[in-house]
Write a structure and sequence with these properties.
This is ATPase. The protein has 136 residues and is of the alpha+beta class. The chain has four helices and five strands; from the N terminus they run αβααββαββ. A hairpin with a 3-residue loop joins strand 2 and strand 3. The protein is globular, with a radius of gyration of 14 Å.
Length: 136
């Protein structure tokens, strides 16, 4: 995942309290960053990307808030790709290939793949990040 991120010249990092208001703030920040980077919000993939981002932040709020009072959202883009990650300190690393489509995470993975993108979990000493990369 780091090689993909290195190829994306636009980056922004946002740290938020892991509470319901984080969903709106993460989404609004994504919209602002995309506009600043010259990526039009009218692109069909942008609505889906914002939905995916909202679901990932919601998932962290629901399942990781006790272990992770803050979350970090990383946004990155180029003229041809958009990537973002939601990082929390919860140690559980979900298996994305086994996420059922009836779950929020399963829907995220399925939608990401339908859009030609990738989804990955990256663990580290401080928890995990779920990365989404989408072609623009």
């Amino acid at each position: 995942m780091s090689s993909v991120l290195e190829a994306l010249p636009y980056r922004h990092v946002l740290t938020l309290p892991n509470e319901p208001s984080a969903v709106r703030l993460a989404r609004e920040t994504a919209e602002q960053a995309l506009v600043e980077w010259g990526i039009g919000l009218h692109r069909p993939v942008v609505d889906a990307a914002l939905l995916i981002l909202s679901e990932l932040v919601t998932n962290s709020v629901r399942h990781a808030a006790e272990e992770s009072p803050q979350i970090m959202v990383v946004y990155a883009a180029s003229g041809s790709h958009l990537a973002f990650a939601v990082h929390d300190r919860h140690t559980h690393q979900p298996l994305l290939d086994r996420a059922g489509t009836s779950t929020g995470l399963g829907t995220v993975v399925e939608l990401t793949r339908q859009l030609g993108g990738t989804a990955a979990v990256q663990g580290d000493a401080d928890g995990k990040s779920i990365w989404i990369t989408l072609p623009l």
